[in-house]
């Protein structure tokens, strides 16, 4: 049958457990086309290239 918690987890206990939950810093890589920093395994947002020479996105020039 279904689970029915016998004891309520206190504010302190719940918070103590959640101290291990951490936000991770995203991995940054340099674009091989324009040498700007970009997220790894993502299309470069400044030139629209992926995996050197492969143009995937059309980026509007400022
Ligand atoms: Zn780029």
Look at the structure and give the mean pLDDT.
Answer: 87
Report the total helices: 1
Overall number of strands: 4
- Small molecules held by this entry: zinc ion
- Main sheet makeup: 2 strands, antiparallel
Query: Rg, please?
Result: 22 Å
Structural classification: alpha+beta
Strand content: 15-25%
Overall body shape: elongated
Distance between the termini: 62 Å
- Compressed to H and E, one letter per element, the order equals HEEEE
Helix fraction bin = 10-25%
Low-confidence stretches: none
Q: Overview of this structure, please?
A:
The protein is of the alpha+beta class. The chain has a domain at 24-62. It contains 1 helix and 4 strands; from the N terminus they run αββββ. A two-stranded antiparallel ribbon has the order 1-2. A two-stranded antiparallel ribbon has the order 3-4. Strand 1 and strand 2 (37-39) form a beta hairpin. The longest helix is centred in the N-terminal third of the chain and has 7 residues, at 11-17. It is elongated. The termini are far apart. Zinc ion is lined by residues 31, 33-34, 36, 44, 46-47, 49.
Describe this structure in a few short sentences.
Helices cover 11% and strands 16% of the residues. It is of the alpha+beta class and 62 residues long. A hairpin with a 3-residue loop joins strand 3 and strand 4 (54-55).
Draw up the topology in text.
Elements: H1 11-17, E1 28-30, E2 37-39, E3 49-50, E4 54-55
Antiparallel strand pairs: 1-2, 3-4
Residues 31, 33-34, 36, 44, 46-47, 49 line the site of zinc ion.
């Amino acid at each position: 049958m279904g689970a029915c918690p016998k004891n309520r987890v206190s504010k302190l206990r719940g918070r103590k457990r959640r101290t291990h939950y951490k936000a991770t810093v995203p991995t940054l890589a340099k674009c091989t086309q324009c040498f700007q920093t970009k997220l790894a395994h993502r299309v470069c947002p400044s030139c629209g290239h992926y995996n050197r020479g492969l143009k995937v996105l059309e980026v509007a020039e400022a």
